[in-house]
Automatic annotation (TrEMBL):
Organism of provenance: Symploca sp. SIO1C4
Keyword vocabulary terms for this entry: Membrane, Transmembrane, Transmembrane helix
Top-level taxonomy: Bacteria, Bacillati, Cyanobacteriota, Cyanophyceae, Coleofasciculales
Positions of transmembrane segments: 12-27, 33-50, 57-74, 80-96, 116-149, 155-177, 184-201
Protein name (database record): DUF2157 domain-containing protein
Length: 223
């Protein structure tokens, strides 16, 4: 590192040039640039973040990796939008996890909202792009639920549970339209389930209320 300040030169302009310079050829030749070049540029910004202790430089690395993945998916002729949304959603979750401002206690709601946006984006596209089978959205919702439970993150639990319920309900509707006899079977099962839930709640009202209150109090302490 040259002693610019000792020579009477300000360090900041050269630092800004070093940040912007690698992005110029990427901006001009992003569609034809070799993947190794994009990975090298992404690694450069990771190194820059480590040296300067500025984690936000890695956001540029994330953007470059996303662009590389999108190009690769396009070359593979992957038409499912989920492939293109997953890197974007994961990038938003990464920002929510590592951003210095997001880590502050007063930014808890903003961090929660960003996690809702990142995970919700993935789940919504999974639901819309895999409507008829529901396998992909079901697997993704279960993974997000487990992530929420293991990491104690409310956003993951909310989004995963909502996606799982919507997907299950939609698949039941498809099942009933495709196989009319299943309508009566599903109705019978749902009716029995509601009767059992009502009877259980009535006999254990106090225990259920206490359990629900404790669970809500515990949930408030989650991320």
């Amino acid at each position: 590192i040259l002693p610019w300040q000792r020579w009477g030169w300000s360090k900041r302009p050269w630092f800004l040039v070093a940040i912007i310079l690698p992005l110029i050829p990427i901006w001009e030749n992003g569609m034809v640039l070799h993947p190794i070049s994009l990975l090298t540029a992404a690694s450069f910004y990771v190194l820059l973040a480590i040296v300067n202790r500025q984690i936000r430089f890695t956001y540029i690395s994330a953007a470059l990796i996303n662009w590389l993945l999108w190009r690769w998916f396009w070359e593979l002729q992957l038409s499912n939008y989920l492939w293109y949304v997953i890197p974007l959603g994961l990038s938003l979750l990464y920002i929510a996890q590592v951003d210095p401002q997001m880590k502050q206690p007063q930014q808890k709601q903003a961090r929660h909202n960003l996690r809702l946006l990142g995970s919700g984006l993935i789940c919504v596209v999974a639901l819309l792009s895999n409507q008829w089978t529901g396998i992909v959205s079901g697997v993704i919702s279960i993974l997000i639920i487990f992530a929420g439970l293991s990491l104690r993150v409310r956003a993951f639990l909310f989004v995963g549970t909502a996606t799982f319920i919507i997907n299950a309900g939609y698949q039941l509707v498809i099942l009933m339209f495709d196989y009319p006899i299943s309508k009566w079977i599903v109705g019978l099962i749902v009716g029995i389930a509601f009767i059992w839930i009502a009877a259980t709640f009535e006999t254990r009202r106090e225990q259920m209320n206490t359990l629900f209150s404790n669970w809500m109090s515990e949930l408030k302490t989650w991320e």
